Amino acid sequence: MLIDETLVKRVAVSEGVDKKVVSQGLTEGTIVIPYNRRRPRQIEPVGIGKGLRTKVNANIGTSPSIADIENEKTKLYAAVDAGADTVMDLSTGGDINKVRGMIIAESTVPIGTVPIYQAACDSPKLKKSFVELTVDEIFASIRKHLADGVDFLTVHTGLTRAGVERLRNRKRLAGIVSRGGAMMVEWMMHNKAENPLAEYFDRLLDLTGEFGACLSLGDGLRPGALADASDRPQIQELLIIGEQVDRARDRGVQAMVEGPGHMPLDQIEMNVKLQKEICHGAPFYVLGPLVTDVAPGYDHIVSAIGGALAGMYGTDFLCYVTPSEHLGLPDADDVRVGTIVSRIAAHAADIAKYPERARKWDEEMSRLRERFKWDEMINASLDPKEARKRFDRYPKQAEDVCTMCGEFCAIKHSKEALGG
Ligand code: SF4
User: Fold this and answer.
1) Which of 98, 226, 361, 404 is the least crowded, having the fewest Cβ atoms under 10 Å away?
2) CB contact set of 42 (below 8 Å; sequence gap of 6+)
3) What is the spatial distance between Cα 108 and Cα 79, in angstroms, rounded to a whole number?
């Protein structure tokens, strides 16, 4: 693999690790730096993988029902402002080329997309339905996104006809919940042919390698209900993705692996370890995992519980979930809240994974808290705006204590009693 030393150095500095950690991870395929050589705007590169901070992605994008470019711009700013490490544009409505162009031009973080959505949105212009598209037309959408400067691409390469057969034999509660996965199944069934992204995987590698971008091998059969977690179709797809990771490495193309989905807490460790084993340590990127199916409106919290655990066991990259999950298209406030909650999960995971590096922030906060340094404490918090809003809700009655316990402040009394 051609390693860009400048990117390696910048990632090492931002992570506080030795350059060798980053270059060795890139060589072995346990770290990726999604950075398209054609991207029109310079950004701070982001490393994802072994030995690095757990990263957070925020999904934005239009839908066929709500497609407003200004809305998407506000969502992009909300995600970046809240600390998202990357943003994915999942647009499927309105002028998706214009939305993607705006996002790539405005974003200060790496951008990912799902090019198969482009193929589906462009098919009416060719007077075809998605399933009537040729392999070349599908690959044209991938090239288009790479040429635009997209840094990482979700491609559902592991969902093959064998996986579909497994799915037929295993009556799932929630079936297929991945949009890209469902599209690939429809295409395979209509054409009675293999998934073109799997059949022509080398072509996909050559194309991605040309731009120095990164593949995110999508889990089209990720479980969409706890009842479907860790079933044979899911594992079948993972086995194929594991082989594709090897092929990507052989050709010097960066690849990470996407994972569940809905997953009971007690299956998370096994799933992360299985992915790491089958995919030879490739960076793992999970959506959630959502640890219960019953809390729409709070699925950002449901996914953070799963994300913290998944991160602790070795997951490298968390895709956020917003309070609107399962209910509707997120707005800018959902994006902000989803990003913050996912960052909490990622940081909690890092405290367990890399205590020496990650706990410094917590120790600093505790020191400020113990000294009643309110302004500094608020500024050092993960979401200073939210902390400030709550601190200022009631008028202050004393410089030291807050309005929670007032004159009964335990910290103040114990310091006085113990002479601290
Ligand atoms: S008043 Fe209560 S909540 Fe506020 S700083 Fe003191 S102990 Fe903590």
Assistant:
1) 404
2) none
3) 11
H or E element at residue 379: helix 374-379
356 C-alpha to ligand 1 centroid (Å): 28
Cα atoms found within 13 Å of the Cα of residue 367, Cβ hemisphere only? 8
- Determine the distance separating the centroid of ligand 1 and the alpha carbon of 374, expressed in angstroms: 11
Which tokens hold the place of 379?
């500024």
Shared-domain flag, residues 290 and 164: yes
> CB atoms < 10 A from the CB of 420, how many?
9
Strand residue runs (E) in 264-321: 284-287, 317-319
Could you tell me the CATH number of the domain that includes residue 303?
3.20.20.540
In angstroms, the Cα distances linking 213 to 117, 206, 208, 219, 244 are 18, 11, 6, 19, 16
The model's pTM is: 0.96
Closest CA to 342 of 287, 266, 388: 287
**Domain range enclosing 15:** 5-353
Q: Is the CB of 294 under 6 A from ligand 1?
A: no
Kindly provide the residue ranges of all beta strands, DSSP E only, lying in 186-265, ordered along the sequence: 214-217, 254-259
Instruction: Look at residue 420 in the predicted model and tell me its pLDDT.
Output: 66
What parts of the chain have a pLDDT lower than 50? none
Task: Kindly state whether residues 301 and 347 are assigned to the same domain.
Answer: yes
Neighbours of 63 (CB within 10 A): 13
Q: How far is the CA of 369 from the centre of ligand 1 (A)?
A: 9
Atom from ligand 1 closest to the CA of residue 401 = 1
Backbone phi, psi, residue 215, to 5°: -90, 140
List pLDDT tens digits, range 308-360.
999 999 999 999 999 999 999 999 999 999 999 999 999 999 999 999 999 99
Query: Are 130 and 200 spatial neighbours (Cβ–Cβ below 8 Å)?
Result: no
Q: 295 CB less than 6 Å from ligand 1?
A: no
178, 302: one domain = yes
**pLDDT for position 356:** 94
The tokens describing 21, both together, are 């950690």
Question: Percent of the chain, pLDDT > 90?
Answer: 93
Domain identity same for 247 and 394: no
Quick one: pLDDT at residue 183? 96
